[in-house]
Amino acid sequence: YISTLRKLYEDDPYNETYFAWILEFYDHPRQRYLLEDFIDKQLEDQPHSTMPWILKGEIAMHAKRWEEAADAYKTANTIDPNSLPIIYNVGLCLSNQAIDIQRAILNKERSLKKEDQQYIKQTLTEAREYLEKAQTMDPRRKKVDWVTPLYIVYYALGETEKASALEPLVTGFKNTNQERID
Hints:
Elements: H1 2-11, H2 16-26, H3 32-45, H4 50-62, H5 66-79, H6 84-109, H7 114-137, H8 147-157, H9 160-166
């Protein structure tokens, strides 16, 4: 079955139906480990197609491999720079990456070194750029809900006025979960 689907997809690599059927096959628990191999093969064959990059980002995101996910989405963004979900996911991955690094360091060492603060701030600043672009593209949040991630980034960067402006829109977030880095 899968070899037939893969052959069909190889013959027509832009057919989203074949691609969806392949993904559905690999989504079964016994086949899931093969999904990353399949995506990597697709990236070798079609490095300028957004779909494999998006899927690579999704897989890495679900595994909380934030840097890998952000890199995959950034590559997809270079191919399709006007895709709102891609832009949002880059910002989301970068913010989660910075927050996870900060938490890991604070849990281990109880304080951040200057270079750690710089790296986290740089990553959060980059996340802010992507999330603000998502905000500009979708101000009413009809396609992606950028509010909470952007609020967290503003709060972590110490941009209290911007965070306060978003606070009425944020649901279910307590700012005690995030430390500021300033």
